[in-house]
């Protein structure tokens, strides 16, 4: 059963065995697994249910419908970092690029060591990774759907002598329409909207869409439900009150919204870690202009990545973006901007992702808004510039005529001879334009209440009955796209909840 704003004519009260707040990579997996295990599951989703056939290639239509705040969200700091979150059934899995990486083995080994939980090692998570990858069809991209921009990236890496790694992607029969970030129009991308959520619905789950949860219901020191209100999706006005009571509560709203909700109840006092350890894989975007047609809109986005510099925490990749989004990221305005957009078919957008060497924090802000802060370190600043130099160097080697840069004081260069201008002594940190789609940390998992927010079963140390299952539970950054790791950990947490509630745990393949 799927309900939306028109269905909430008066105050709504529901009961369930498990209520799951959020339907992204974490929430959808937990809820689906528990529904199949025999639990009465109710999902609560702030956004709407938008089936595949409603997706539009027009940015002006899709972004307001699928993204939080129409994509206009920013992490405050030096410099500020725009970020994006999905706000729809399927969450950010609907709007991401579809990369399906596991967290690297050394990262997982560190988690297992620091928490004392072998379940978090690569061996402990292996059966869950395998089951998730099978469920979302994580596989290499078909050759016929690979575009020219990816081929230039691959050939450029070969010429430079760099290690280039093909991406596993969660897709079935992808035809390369390249609308990943606006919702896959063919259903090829295996987001939770088309995988775990339908499975949950078939098992009898209920989904309350267009409802924002404002608080937890706590009685006798235990979490027994959630309460919030319906949201008019057109006027964005507050609607009737909605309450769901359950034996177990799972919060899966992401690394910014999850701590914002939990902070209202002054939880995790022993460690003081709730909202801290915010991680975001900040990255810079560049645009290469070539003397020939690339037509990056033909063929799927980001088939592979340059992994040559991964040990330094630097990853280079192609990142197709639609015309309207590209226009907003140009380092110039007026006539020059118009001239660049006329060469859209001759352009390639690429990025440099940097693995965090610092952390930020999420706090409760004014008007009940979540506020994230994060300051880039000098070390990371140097890595951004190095990554930009490397990407520009490769493009020039492949024939680029100009590379547009994300630096206010250096908007573009026209030859490899100018690469030396991309230097920390010339470009200040405040002049760098950053972006991120990866948000992690803030409710970290751990082996002790003194330095973490949740235990290894996903339950809050100081609030029985309340669990977390999203990227906020990551103890550290993972250096790769997080969705598959979120799903695997969520599946593991679902098993723990099932065991505690006396039903058979979902079986890992």
Question: Nutshell version of this structure?
Answer:
The protein has 509 residues and is α+β, with helices and mostly antiparallel strands.
Q: What does this entry look like structurally?
A:
By secondary structure, the protein is of the alpha+beta class. The protein folds into 2 domains: about 1-135 and about 180-265 and about 445-500, FAD/NAD(P)-binding domain (3-Layer(bba) Sandwich), CATH 3.50.50; about 140-170 and about 285-355 and about 375-430, Cholesterol Oxidase, domain 2. It is about 25% helix and about 20% strand. It has 11 helices and 21 strands. Strands 1, 2, 3, 9, 10, 11, 12 and 21 form an 8-stranded mixed β-sheet that branches. The chain has a 7-stranded antiparallel β-sheet with strand order 7-14-15-16-13-19-20, covered by helices on one side. A two-stranded antiparallel sheet has the order 4-5.
């Amino acid at each position: 059963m799927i309900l939306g704003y028109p269905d909430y004519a008066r105050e709504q009260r529901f009961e369930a065995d498990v209520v799951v707040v959020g339907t992204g990579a974490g929430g959808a997996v937990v809820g689906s697994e528990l529904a199949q295990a025999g639990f009465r599951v109710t999902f609560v989703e702030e956004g709407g249910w938008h089936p595949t056939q409603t997706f539009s290639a027009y940015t002006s239509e899709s972004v307001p419908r699928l993204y939080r705040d129409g994509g206009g969200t920013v992490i405050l700091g030096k410099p500020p970092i725009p970020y994006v979150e999905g706000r729809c059934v399927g969450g950010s899995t609907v709007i991401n690029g579809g990369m399906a990486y596991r967290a690297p083995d050394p990262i997982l080994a560190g988690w297992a060591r620091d928490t004392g939980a072998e379940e978090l090692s690569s061996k402990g998570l292996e059966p869950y990774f395998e089951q998730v990858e099978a469920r979302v069809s994580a596989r290499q991209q078909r050759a016929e759907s690979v575009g020219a921009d990816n081929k230039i990236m691959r050939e450029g890496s070969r010429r430079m002598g760099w290690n280039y790694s093909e991406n596993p992607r969660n897709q079935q029969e992808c035809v390369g329409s390249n609308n990943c970030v606006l919702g896959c129009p063919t259903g090829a991308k295996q987001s939770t909207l088309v995988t775990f959520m339908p499975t949950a619905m078939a098992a009898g789950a209920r989904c309350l869409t267009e409802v924002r949860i404002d608080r937890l219901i706590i009685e006798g020191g235990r979490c027994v439900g959630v309460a919030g209100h319906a949201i008019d999706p057109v006027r964005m006005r507050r609607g009737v009150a909605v309450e769901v009571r359950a034996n177990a509560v799972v919060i899966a709203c992401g690394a910014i919204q999850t701590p914002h909700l939990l902070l209202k109840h002054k939880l995790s006092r022993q460690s003081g870690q709730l909202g801290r350890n915010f991680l975001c894989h900040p990255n810079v975007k560049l645009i290469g202009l070539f003397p020939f047609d690339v037509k990056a809109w033909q063929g799927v986005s980001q088939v592979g990545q340059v992994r040559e510099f991964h040990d330094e925490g630097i990853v280079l990749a192609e990142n197709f973006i639609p015309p309207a989004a590209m226009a907003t990221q140009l380092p110039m305005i007026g006539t020059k901007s118009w001239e660049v957009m006329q060469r859209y078919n001759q352009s390639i957008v690429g990025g440099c992702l940097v693995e965090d060497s610092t952390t930020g924090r999420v706090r409760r802000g004014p008007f009940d808004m979540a506020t994230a802060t994060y300051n880039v370190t000098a070390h990371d600043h140097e890595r951004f510039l190095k990554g930009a130099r490397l990407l520009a160097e490769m493009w020039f080697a492949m024939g680029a005529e100009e590379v547009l840069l994300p630096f206010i004081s250096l908007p573009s260069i026209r030859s490899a001879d100018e690469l030396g201008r991309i230097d920390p002594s010339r470009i200040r940190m405040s002049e760098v334009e950053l972006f991120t789609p990866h948000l992690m940390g803030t409710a970290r998992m751990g082996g002790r209440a003194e330095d973490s927010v949740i235990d290894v079963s996903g339950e809050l140390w100081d609030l029985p009955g309340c669990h977390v299952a999203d990227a906020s539970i990551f103890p550290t950054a993972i250096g790769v796209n997080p969705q598959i790791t979120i799903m695997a950990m969520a599946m593991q947490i679902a098993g723990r909840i099932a065991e505690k509630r006396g039903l058979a745990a979902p079986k890992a393949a």
